[in-house]
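Job type: complex structure
Entries:
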Amino acid sequence: MTKSFTWLQVDPADWRGKIGQLRNDGFTFFDFLTGVDRENVEGKQMCEVVVHLAKEDLSDSHFLYTHVHNELASITDLMPAAQWHERECAEMFGIQFIGGSASGESTKSLLRHESLSLPPLRKTTVLAARVLTPWPGGAEPQIKEDGRKVGNASRRRQLPPGVPENWLKQ
Amino acid sequence: MKHSFIALIEDKCTSCMLCVRECPAWCISLDSHTIDVTEEGARRPRKVNVLDSFEIDYSLCMYCGVCIDVCPFDALAWDEHRALVTTNREDMLLGIVELGPSGSS
Amino acid sequence: MAVTRYALTSDPSVSVEVVSASLACCTLEVQAALNSGALIQVPESDAGPSVIVIAGTVTDALVPSVIELIHAHPGSKVMSFGACATSGGPYWDSPPVSKGIDQFVEVAAYVAGCPPRPDAFIQAIQELLSKRVS
């Protein structure tokens, strides 16, 4: 049983240093590393990277998080188990993990098709199917599904969720 | 109650479009028009939405029940009467009549 | 992928070979149906129809394998079990998921649901059998 959780925000520059220090203090159990798209952190497009490290007997654990744009130092030499997680995080959130052992064949996309260049879990990535498929929710009693207005429709046609207003039209 | 079908109680539907917009699979489509209903003693006619068509595409529906949850008039409800097996994908598009609750037909 | 011959418990004279392509969670419902008692396992033979059950999400990367499986069983009926195999289902907007196996193979029976209930599988088998045998 984990008795306590400590959340700690660290600067990207201290990422490796802090994790190395925790490892030396006995936090040797690497649970997971993942990304969270925070979209807007103090006006900047930022992604959060979270790592969970615990003591081997799970008596104490630390969640470390940092805000990065798209680059962070790899921790695979400190925590070899992080390689799979960094690889997934790179694929899904478009974060490059600099250094470490995840290179060459081991950085190949796991799930994503090679031709898709945008990381699917970033909120700025629009799913094309949601733009190309006519959204049935666009209709109203006074507005038909194809956008035709009947009578004196005063309201604007609504947009489907997840599609920016002028996507690909600028 | 088996959650094996989502039925439409046509009389309760006000064509508010909430279910259509909330459906994560975009599998509901609804067509309606507005008419003026004049009631005795009323100063001006009342606008009433009339449901023209309502379709659920069961080839896409994931039975999540969001449409049932969001419906403010309980016009959609879980129903148990059928497992839908078809030889044509188009046959999975069910309209107002086929969507009627099991007791009605 | 498992190939086994089953007969309806209610009518053991008719048997069907079930090739189950287990691609995702829907396959659990297929397994539940196969072990529900409505179907009984019978010895392998060449007689009677064969059904290939595509149960689960078919990603674009899996499409060649699915086509290969279907070609490996010529004359088999294809059952599209669940929303994913039929249309992409909850993954309809996901780029790596195919939007229905009927784009590349002929489908004999579609079963709606996410997942469909095990009795829907039995019903689909019954319908396929009655068409073939009657």
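Summary: Helices of chain B lie at 18-22, 66-70. Chain B has two helices and six strands.
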